[in-house]
Specification:
By secondary structure, the protein is mostly helical. The chain is built from eleven helices and no strands. α5 packs antiparallel against α6, α7 packs antiparallel against α8 and α7 runs parallel beside α9. This is Bacteriophage terminase endonuclease subunit.
Length: 245
């Protein structure tokens, strides 16, 4: 566990180096130390076969040790290429820290940072796909998903080039996240996913939601065709014949 004093030092060094870096953080002492740590942590993870266990190690043991460095870079950085920063972004998604990953993603897209070679995807594509897949997995396990975060991801990558299949995943994830709160909006995103990739697996969901919406509309519709019960018109009383008439 990083001590408060060490964390403060790491944050300060990272901020100074990031503020003074050119196109890359290479040769900056603090960065090189973090890069060496990243390599060691990767070697440790490779020795673990369980994906679930790897996620726990990232979340509970490894990622906290990068917080100070990341905070320093994001606070003062001018967009130098940083493989530590980009790798931590992916690990945060893996660990379920989507908000933390987005903090890095905003910076990365603003400064057009690229992913380390082993990821083989553009930054925007990776952000969209990894976060969408994380949200879809949560939805599949009946866990709540924050649609606001997914909307932010969609806005971040709206103008970025990526395969249609990846963007379809993002719309699918948004649709599932909105299904209970706003089924009409959910349908919009699911239909868009289907337009982008006709094998994205949403056809039956679209049909089901449409049926549920029609059923709800029928239940809530006002009754029609019922006879009205109005009081008879009032008029002058008829003359009654005089008694004995």
């Amino acid at each position: 566990m990083t001590s408060p004093a060490k964390a403060h030092f790491q944050r300060a060094v990272a901020a100074i180096e990031a503020a003074g870096a050119g196109n890359t953080m290479r040769d900056a002492t603090g960065y090189e130390l973090m890069l060496a740590k990243l390599s060691a942590d990767r070697r440790r993870l490779k020795q673990v076969q369980s994906i679930e266990r790897k996620i726990v190690i990232k979340r509970e043991e490894l990622l906290p040790e990068y917080v100070a460095y990341i905070d320093g870079v994001l606070a003062a950085g001018r967009g130098a290429q940083d493989d530590v920063l980009m790798s931590v972004m992916v690990w945060r998604v893996d660990a379920g820290d989507i908000a933390g990953a987005l903090a890095i993603a905003r910076y990365a897209l603003q400064h057009k940072l690229t992913m380390p070679d082993q990821y083989e995807r553009t930054t925007a594509c990776l952000i969209a796909e990894e976060i969408a897949e994380s949200a879809l997995a949560a939805s599949g396990n009946d866990q709540s998903v924050d649609a606001t975060i997914l909307h932010e991801v969609a806005a971040l990558v709206a103008d970025e080039d990526m395969p249609d299949e990846v963007r379809a995943k993002l719309h699918k994830a948004i649709g599932y996240a909105l299904e209970k709160a706003d089924p009409a909006e959910a349908l919009t995103h699911l239909n868009r996913a289907l337009q982008l990739h006709d094998k994205c697996g949403v056809k039956k969901d679209i049909e089901r939601i449409e049926r549920e919406m029609r059923k709800a509309a029928a239940v809530n519709a006002p009754p029609t065709g019922e006879a009205t019960h109005e009081s008879p018109p009032t008029g002058e009383p008829k003359d009654t014949p005089p008694a004995g008439g």
